[in-house]
């Protein structure tokens, strides 16, 4: 409660006869007092800190929270909202189409009680079940366009089967590659074989060249090799490289100064 509110309440209890009258001695005493002196800010104290401490002729913050927002009493709004009809929830069984058409596993979740007149809807998150379209090839297409001296037909079939199962996540495909039954292949080798076949199939079926499946395996190998060298540097090599970079900047600055 603010100080002015307290004074208003107390002033209502004072009789009207004495509220508007003042003693002569009191008036003279007030004149002698003069204006109220303000307290000076101590030296070394920040202005912001002093403004928080000093409370000269300022009302204190009310302890009880008040509702100053427009829209009326908050309790009345709470009564209004509590009178609204609550939506019913129901523990409902559902099937997930992402598990396959032959899967009959039933799951349960909470959902708003459906209208009996509405048809049964598909599971809402089934729309996120996206699949990567991995091409297939026939025996004649493989014999005519896809043969490679470094890859057998069995290896190629296994590679494309893994690509369908793991949706072209080649790090996982490389991890699942059987190095005992088949030759050891790097991630770049697997990618190169896959995209080479896709490009050849696209040209065999449309007779048009496309860059949609372009993959530069040699560039990728060089990039990884350089990254390996960068990450395997010692502390001394890093400091030497930093020193050389600073020297290069100094030489460039001196050259620019001479050209001016």
From TrEMBL:
Pfam families: SANT_DAMP1_like. It comes from the Eukaryota. One of its GO terms (molecular function) is transcription corepressor activity. GO terms for cellular component: NuA4 histone acetyltransferase complex; Swr1 complex. One of its GO terms (biological process) is negative regulation of transcription by RNA polymerase II. Keywords: Chromatin regulator, Nucleus, Transcription, Transcription regulation. It is found in: Nucleus. The keyword Transcription applies. The keyword Nucleus applies. Residues 123-201 form the DAMP1 SANT/Myb-like domain. Gene3D superfamilies: Homeodomain-like (1.10.10.60). InterPro entries: DAMP1_SANT-like, Swc4/Dmap1. This is DNA methyltransferase 1-associated protein 1. It comes from Rotaria sordida.
